[in-house]
Design goal:
six-stranded mixed β-sheet; 136 residues; 38% helix; Nuclear Transport Factor 2, Chain: A
Length: 136
């Protein structure tokens, strides 16, 4: 059995650690728990505060690109008609270096919806650039 020199093993450990931290750290910079609470409380201003300047919003297959203030109006309309019983983000992933994704199940009056958020890196911060709400 060949033994690797300690220097090579150490370089491998450092490389793997850097790789893992690179994958995990962007997701840690996204305020998932604050976003969950904002959805439950229908705090649309808080939700769009995490957004890019333009946000694609899709509610039951009706989609458009909105400014933050317009997106807040669309979300407020949905939440006023379908107040939250619960919402929990269950999926968090990184699609690419600059794009992350989160999704969860939203319950309202016995109806189930999937709410997903796509985040895009803008000026070293992840911002919501897409919100999709679909009945399941």
């Amino acid at each position: 059995m060949l033994r690797q020199p300690k220097n090579t093993t150490m370089k491998l450990i450092i490389t793997l650690t850097y790789f893992i931290l690179t994958l995990i750290s962007p997701l840690q910079s996204i305020p998932f728990s604050e976003l969950e609470q904002a959805v439950i409380q229908a705090d649309v201003n808080k939700i769009v505060s995490y957004g890019a300047e333009k946000i694609l919003v899709s509610v039951n297959n009706k989609e458009s690109i909105y400014s933050k203030s317009q997106a807040a109006i669309v979300l407020k309309d949905f939440f006023s008609k379908k107040p939250a019983d619960s919402f929990k983000i269950s999926v968090k992933s990184q699609k690419q270096e600059n794009i992350s994704f989160a999704a969860g199940e939203y319950l309202s009056k016995g109806a189930k919806y999937r709410i997903s958020f796509q985040f895009k890196k803008v000026d070293e911060q992840f911002k919501i650039d897409k919100i999709v709400i679909a009945e399941i």
